[in-house]
Design a protein that fits this description.
With 148 residues, the protein is mainly alpha-helical. 54% of the residues lie in helices and 7% in strands. It is built from 5 helices and 2 strands; from the N terminus they run ααβαααβ. The chain has a two-stranded antiparallel ribbon with strand order 1-2.
Length: 148
């Protein structure tokens, strides 16, 4: 799993952002599906902001997004958005992360982004290009070499 030249190195911020843009498409489809189900369960009536139904829908959207990421990372180390850029999630020693590590990675990535992206920008200061969610989950996003 090591790229040419030895030890895997975390992908830089640009590759991470490109993968996030690509992943926004399947994630948006999942959000629309969850919202349609919530609307059906609510009798076709709009869900009032800040109501219990609203918070249940938000939690369902957060959970389905996490399931998409964790299942993708667990099965092949990649989401759909990571594939074109040859990015993969692994532990620091190149092994497949546990499901618990991946859920921790997902939760901490949400915090990293919610705090004005500071957890992502941290990778610009870290000599190993790690974001907060990399450090907190003992995982990393690695860019693999081209197949020759």
């Amino acid at each position: 799993m090591s790229p040419v030249g030895g030890t895997p190195r975390s992908a830089h911020l640009g590759w991470r952002l490109l993968a996030m843009v690509y992943d926004s498409l399947p994630v948006l489809a999942l959000w629309l599906l969850v919202s349609a189900i919530a609307l059906l369960l609510h009798g076709g009536q709009p869900i009032a902001p800040w109501s219990l139904a609203f918070w249940l829908q938000v939690m369902a959207i957060w959970g389905i997004t996490g399931a998409y990421a964790v299942i993708s990372w667990r099965r092949g180390g990649q989401t759909l958005g990571m594939r074109p850029w040859r990015l993969t999630v692994a532990t620091f020693d190149g092994k497949v992360p546990t499901t618990a590590q991946l859920w921790r990675r997902y939760a901490l990535a949400n915090v990293s982004i919610a705090l004005a992206g500071l957890g992502l920008l941290w990778s610009l200061l870290d000599p190993r290009r790690r974001c907060w969610h990399d450090i907190g989950s003992s995982t990393q996003l690695v860019r693999m070499p081209k197949n020759r």
